[in-house]
Specification:
Elements (H helix, E strand, L loop, with lengths): L1 H8 L6 H43 L1 E3 L1 H5 L13 E11 L11 E14 L7 E4 L4 E5 L2 E2 L5 E2 L2 E5 L2 H6 L1 H12 L5 E6 H11 L2 E5 L3 E2 L6 E2 L2 E5 L1 H9 L9 H21 L6 H13 L1 E4 L5 H10 L9 E4 L2 E3 L7 E3 L1 H12 L19 E3 L8 H4 L1
Parallel strand pairs: 1-14, 2-9, 4-15, 5-17
Antiparallel strand pairs: 2-3, 3-4, 5-8, 6-7, 9-14, 10-13, 10-18, 11-12, 16-17
Helix pairs in contact: 2-9, 6-7, 6-9, 7-8
């Protein structure tokens, strides 16, 4: 019995070669799967980190507290309201000049809007400040830390080129008595890439754009503009309306609303490729205050503004009057402007009398709900 049991329990030489490789093969498979999973995780993490670092590295920033200081700034009146100064900076030097008419050195702030978002963040008011407005520029530190003295009767858009964006913030705070919470600057050349990443933006003209002085030529009606034409559109002054800068403000405001509607309409979060294109184009053109200068801060801020519908955003031009000395320039209409600033400062509805500008620009453009977006393949 013992010998039989022993014989039964003993593995025969023929069995050993079959079982050992089976265990070894299973072990190799498990090890291979583990290494593959690790490689995928590490690869995804590496790619994610590269994307995050790349996008965040695109963003430039300005430390407003350091550049302006904390003294002599207007107090915050309504804690949960937000006031954001949005600048469109424009350089027409080099190749960028080919997109318009003329090669001009340096960069300028051709667009300035103070966007007020009331407590509750369900609506917004954007006040455009005409670039040709004569103002008093306060004493500032420029981007190299040098003191730029106070100056009277200088054009508003010269503040940016002489003393930089922080001085524009300080100037707007002095004009309005409103504390600017955040600052966002969009470079017009980068703005072109953002429009292309969206697949275009749709606008409607009530009257034709003649293309005077090398500008954009469009018939009256609806048009979907690519980035190059969009850049020409927001720069257009001559050959449209009364040819004034005040008329151009209307075009810029309407295009901004149309672009915001397009961004809101597109399901970027549901399309990672499109999301990356938008984020890459957007951050390349962006300079913010230091509090917003990260992807996480921008994402949190954008999420907090999710309830603001572009279709309900109110756009107002700062009330101005033609200057009595130089009719090619305007000055702030203080009576109306005081009412406007007070309403925004205290988070109240802007009265109709505060919107009545003695100097009026041309009109003829209106935004239109964007047409269906092209297929993803058409946008690549």
């Amino acid at each position: 019995m013992t010998s039989d049991a022993t014989a039964t329990a003993t593995t025969t030489p023929e069995q050993a070669p079959e079982q050992a490789p089976t265990r070894s093969r299973a072990s190799r498979i498990r090890r291979g799967l583990a290494w593959t999973a690790a490689a995928l995780v590490l690869g995804s993490a590496g790619a994610g980190w590269w994307v995050y670092s790349h996008l965040e590295g695109n963003i430039d920033s300005v430390d407003l507290d350091r550049a302006i200081g904390t003294d002599n700034r207007p107090p915050k009146v309504v804690e949960k309201a937000q006031n954001i100064l949005v600048l469109g900076s424009d350089s027409r030097a080099g190749a960028n000049g080919e997109l318009d008419h003329g090669n001009v050195s340096g960069a300028r702030s051709d667009t300035a809007m103070l966007v007020h978002i009331p407590e509750g963040r369900s609506r917004a008011t954007a006040v455009s400040i005409p670039r040709d407005t004569l103002i008093t520029r306060p004493e500032c530190k420029d981007q190299d830390g040098k003191t730029v003295p106070e100056a009277n009767r200088v054009m508003f858009n010269s503040v940016y080129s002489v003393a930089g964006p922080a001085c524009v913030v300080k100037t707007v705070e002095q004009l309005s008595g409103i504390r600017v919470d955040h600052f966002v600057e969009v470079d017009f050349a980068g703005f072109k890439g953002l429009v292309d990443a969206l697949g275009g933006v749709t606008v409607t003209l009530d009257q034709p754009m003649t293309g005077a002085k090398g500008g954009l030529k469009l018939d009256a009606g609806t048009h979907r503009l690519n980035g190059t034409d969009a850049l020409k559109f927001v720069r257009t002054r001559y050959g449209y309306g009364d040819g004034s800068d005040l008329g151009r403000i209307g075009l810029q405001q309407q295009f901004m609303l149309a672009m915001l509607s397009e961004v809101k309409k597109q399901d970027a979060l549901g399309n990672p490729a499109r999301l990356y294109k938008l984020a890459d184009a957007g951050t390349k053109s962006l300079t913010t205050d230091s509090d917003l200068a990260s992807l996480s801060a921008l994402a949190d801020f954008a999420q907090s503004m999710k309830g603001v519908d572009p279709s309900t955003m109110e756009t107002i031009m700062l009330p101005v009057a033609y200057d009595k000395v130089d009719p090619n320039r305007v000055v702030i209409a203080q009576e109306q402007a005081s009412l406007l600033w007070e309403a925004l400062r205290t988070d109240q509805k802007v009265p109709a009398s505060a919107k009545d500008s003695p100097a009026k620009g041309g009109s003829g453009a209106r935004s239109k709900s964007p047409a269906p977006s092209p297929s993803p393949s058409a946008q690549q």
